[in-house]
Amino acid sequence: MPGQSVGAVTSQRAHFDQPLHLRSGGVLPAYDLVYETYGTLNAAKSNAILVCHALSGHHHVAGHYADAPNNVGWWDNIVGPGRPLDTDKFFIVGLNNPGGCHGSTGPSSINPATGKPWGADFPIVAVSDWVEAQARLADYLGIDAWAAVIGGSLGGMQAMRWTISQPERVRHAIIIASAPKLSAQNIAFNDVARQAILTDPDFHGGNYYEHNTRPVRGLRLARMLGHITYLSDDQMGEKFGRELRNGSFGFDFDVEFEVESYLRYQGDKFAGYFDANTYLLMTKALDYFDPARLDGGDLTKAMARSNPNTGFLIASFTTDWRFTPARSKEIVAALLACNRNVSYAEIDLNFGHDSFLMDDAHYHGVVAAYLRNIKL
């Protein structure tokens, strides 16, 4: 990969005493945000880029920890000196959103009102709530406006919401492999995944912490289902085909095909570290995202709230069937209809929805070219 890694990094924590009033009607009386930064904030504080994470993401975007060199950030291939998110030019900020399970206040955190984990009492959070929390983090860091807000998938939805809710605080938005709202099919996938968790006997109504157990089976199934939708059919065919682990049929229900082995491995790995309540919250935030809802479904009216001076890069991938290029083009059409400055790239990459995470020269070249034209 071009450029260099940012190397060893450390996480930081910011505490906020100002209550966060949520779209659901719930309130977080106080909360912590865990975040990481890469590069140096310039004197004018004009070179900051916010990276918004997707469903299972977190604050550890790039680099590695000194005591865990194999724990590499989830988007390490795009952040660093000489990489598209060039830390010689930009100050990059990644955070774990409220409701997360990687250090920020979430369902596994202690509820100050009870002295026990929040569990099922943790309120539903929406993308607009995350943007509000991120804006407070920007205040904490002394950043009046982001040079850019960037994200893929659910992260792209946050970037879009920034331009509507905080239009004066974002100069560019880079929205990758995303959509203006979920399709019915995507909502259905999310509900099946949630049902796998909710019906796990170890779920205990979301209060499994008190029972010293975790709904591992449900979370494992949810991740397996999700993982199928993140990959393209061609990629799965090329990677696994119908290969048998032992070369012949076993005529039983154990793992036989290589693709089964792969999915179970991914499910087990994910269930080993992710929190089930957080998974439920993140998928609900995806379902609820619909910035045009209060405008009668008119996305142009919603995007017209963005700053006329804000620039947009919208990128999609040809094999992404969960967030198809057609969904990105809906965003482009709405932006053009309200005379916004928008660039669009449809990239031929064979990794399905996961393409936005991949180290591809053409894809990274598109992002790098756009960012090079940002004036600080």
Automatic annotation (TrEMBL):
Residues 47-357 form the AB hydrolase-1 domain. The record marks 322 as: Important for acyl-CoA specificity. Substrate binds at residues 223, 354. One of its GO terms (molecular function) is homoserine O-acetyltransferase activity. It comes from the Bacteria. Pathway: Amino-acid biosynthesis; L-methionine biosynthesis via de novo pathway; O-succinyl-L-homoserine from L-homoserine: step 1/1. Belongs to the AB hydrolase superfamily. MetX family. This is Homoserine O-succinyltransferase. It comes from Dechloromonas hankyongensis.
